[in-house]
Design brief:
- There is one protein chain.
- This protein is mainly β.
- It is 0% helix and 38% strand.
- The protein has no helices and twelve strands.
- A four-stranded antiparallel beta sheet has the order 3-4-5-6, with no helix packed on it. A four-stranded antiparallel beta sheet has the order 8-9-10-11, with no helix packed on it. The chain has a two-stranded antiparallel ribbon with strand order 1-2.
- Strand 5 (51-55) and strand 6 (62-67) form a beta hairpin.
- The protein starts with a strand and ends in an 18-residue tail after the last strand.
- 24% of the residues are buried.
């Protein structure tokens, strides 16, 4: 079973081919971790062996997202934003959106089963912004964990534009002729 000792001392393993509502028994034994494909994190790059991404070292957004066997970049940066880009504005005009401050990128997990990057920064509207991007060896997906320590907006009136705020994460995907499915309450 693919496994890895995590930086916090916990053991992670990947249980494959377990049907829903089924039971499977695993045995933990001493030895080196076994993985078919390796996940890695280095600098501002994360790679699962199937999915590869690169983080902008100034903004912390994902500027490159590619998948093995598919040509092109799934991140559309032509509008000045990147995937998981932080945006915050007060009032009702999105054109006034502000970015986070300078980022610090560090490797969270180095692999071989799980690899992650941690992006920390100051950001308007919050005390701290911490984004973690994580991949699993052989996985065709990226886990995004955004932690925001939000500060309360002090305004004279919350009914006026100056009392409204909006905290957003941009996801400008580049998927030509793609179809989007929105899962919303009571409908799809």
């Amino acid at each position: 079973v693919p496994s890895q000792r995590l930086s916090n001392g916990e053991l992670a393993f990947l249980a494959k081919d377990v049907p829903p509502l089924a039971v499977r028994r695993f045995t933990v034994s001493a030895g080196k971790p076994h993985v078919d494909m390796r996940a890695s994190a280095e600098g501002a790059t994360l790679n699962s062996g199937v999915v590869r991404l690169r983080v902008d070292e100034q903004t912390g957004g994902i500027t490159q997202l590619s998948m093995q066997g598919i040509a092109g970049n799934f991140a559309d940066t032509s509008g000045g934003e990147s995937l998981n880009d932080y945006r915050y504005f007060i009032g009702d005009n999105p054109a006034n959106a502000q970015r986070n401050g300078a980022v610090k990128i560090s490797v969270g997990e180095q692999g071989p089963l799980i690899a992650s990057l941690i992006i920390e920064s100051d950001a308007p509207g919050c005390e701290q912004l911490r984004r973690e991007l994580r991949v699993v060896a052989g996985g065709d997906y990226v886990e995004i964990i955004n932690l925001v320590a939000k500060t309360r907006l002090a305004a004279a009136s919350y009914k006026q534009p100056a009392g409204k705020e909006s905290l957003n994460f941009a996801f400008p995907f580049n998927v030509p002729d793609g179809e989007m499915l929105l899962d919303i309450p009571l409908g799809v």
